[in-house]
Amino acid sequence: VQIEIINTGSELMLGSVLNTHQQWLCRELAKLGYVVTRQTAVADSGEMIEQTVREGLSRADLVITTGGLGPTSDDITRDRIAQLLDCALHEDSRVVQHIEEFFAHRHRAMPGSTRVQALVPESAIVLPNAHGTAPGLVMEVPGGRFRAGERPSLLIMLPGPPRELRPMFSNQVVPLLRAKLPAMEDFLCRTFLTTGLGESLVEERIAPSLRPLIEQGLELGYCARVGEVELRCVARGASAVQIISQAERTIRELLPDHIFGVEDETLESSVVHLLIRQGRTVSVAESCTGGFIAHRLTNVPGASAVFRGGFVTYSNEAKEEFLGVRREIIRDHGAVSAETARAMAEGARHRANADYAIAVTGIAGPSGGTEEKPVGTVFIALASNGKTRVIRSVNRYDRETFKFVTSQQALDMLRRVLLKDQA
Ligand code: ATP
Ligand code: MG
Q: Is 261 near ligand 1, meaning CB less than 6 Å away?
């Protein structure tokens, strides 16, 4: 199956918006067993859009366009494609009603221009937009029109905003593709998310034991990101289910506590779910991460059941005042020290009345390091009932990456303790 993605938008050409649709759509398609053959991004120019779509349709079974379905004068995808396909546009009354309701629910007047979004090509399947006003559109282009042969091509137009495109793709396009464009063979993909080991170590641990499965067709892929490694297992054909489940058993045996999740899970969601399951609560005391750990925890729906609250104690005084860290501890050991981290965690646990508390204190840089405590040094403490653990790490990155990696280590520390406590 040949699949091409065409992203439209002058903002992509100007560098003011990162083309995340490219990655997201490719990833979602790959999960279903479709591999994209070509990606193109073009400005909001009628000629460019028409030319690229025409070329795409001359090669591909499926062409997906993104963007340019909105109400403004630079939104020309729908018009240009209707022209290219010689298709008249007509107003779809259900879309008109949806747009009217969309504005009514938000107590906003409906601008006249938004009505153009209800214009749809005669033969198109209309994909209602649950999170916006412009519907997605699906058209079937007969074989012989742009490409040789009998086989038709599918042309799918999706709206630009990610929060509109993503649910529309997952809920409406995926079932449509399953029906209209069956993947060539059974395809199974399972992704494991690991932390605490680099990608070569992950490979060293698992690859030898997986060799027999690899000979049977198992494909392994590694994707290293800051603070985590994604391990992808793919199998095809009739024995795909059996190969993947055997691979999963082996992988879990060999990386028992490095795997924090599968597919789209995040470390913070796995931590929150463990806390919910165990009926435990957590608090955080953050210096160098500036609230980032609290941010990540509160990104998870349901966090309110387990997250008691956090302290961003950047100055020494704040550590003393909000967490009760004794002045002598900071004086004798320094604000960046195992002792201070420990006192911060214990103070946060006590003051927030939580079962667990995480504390971090470190030197994000670029300045402020010493020989004994170089830039990147961080102490992470975890206080629980009767016991406080402290680890030391050197995370030498730019400030933002430093925060992410440090939060990753802190959340992973909590995750491991929760696993141990539940056993
Ligand atoms: P709207 O009704 O909002 O105008 P639209 O379908 O016309 O939607 P565009 O105008 O092309 O879509 O894009 C709307 C917004 O969606 C852009 O400002 C941008 O923030 C985001 N967006 C568009 N294309 C992409 C992309 N390829 N990757 C990430 N974000 C994108
Ligand atoms: Mg627009």
A: no
> Distance of CA 169 to CAs 66, 136, 162, 289, 395, Å?
11, 9, 10, 35, 38
18-27: pLDDT as tens digits: 999 999 999 9
Q: Which atom of ligand 1 is nearest to the CA of 117?
A: 2
The response to whether residue 117 sits with its C-beta less than 6 Å from ligand 1 reads no
Q: Supply the pLDDT for residue 186.
A: 77
Q: Average per-residue pLDDT in the chain?
A: 95
**Interior CA angle at 177 toward 230 and 32, to 5°?**
20
Does the pTM exceed 0.70? Answer: yes
Interatomic CA distance for residues 95 and 110, integer angstroms: 13
Nearest ligand, CA of residue 68? 1
- ∠ at Cα 39 (20, 28), nearest 5°? 55
154 Cα–ligand 2 center, Å:
23
| CA nearest ligand 1 atom 1, residue | 70
Q: In the sheet that 187-194 helps form, which strands lie side by side, from edge to edge? A: 219-225, 228-236, 187-194, 259-262
Cis peptide leading into residue 366 (ω within 30°): yes
The pLDDT tens digits for 100-141 are 999 999 999 999 889 999 999 999 999 999 999 999 999 999
Whether 114 lines ligand 1, by a CB cut-off of 6 Å, is: no
Q: Does 135 sit in the ligand 1 pocket, CB within 6 Å?
A: no
119 Cα: distance to centroid of ligand 2 (angstroms):
15
Q: How does residue 184 score in pLDDT terms, banded at 50, 70 and 90? A: low
Query: CB of 44 within 8 A of CB of 78?
Result: no
- Tell me the residues surrounding ligand 2 (ion) with CB < 5 Å: 70, 75
Query: How far apart, in whole angstroms, are the C-alpha atoms of residue 308 and residue 323?
Result: 14
Give the ligand at the shortest distance from the Cα of 117: 1
Q: Is 160 in the pocket of ligand 1 (CB under 6 A)?
A: yes
Q: Is the CB of 158 under 6 A from ligand 1?
A: no
Q: How far is the CA of 36 from the centre of ligand 1 (A)?
A: 21
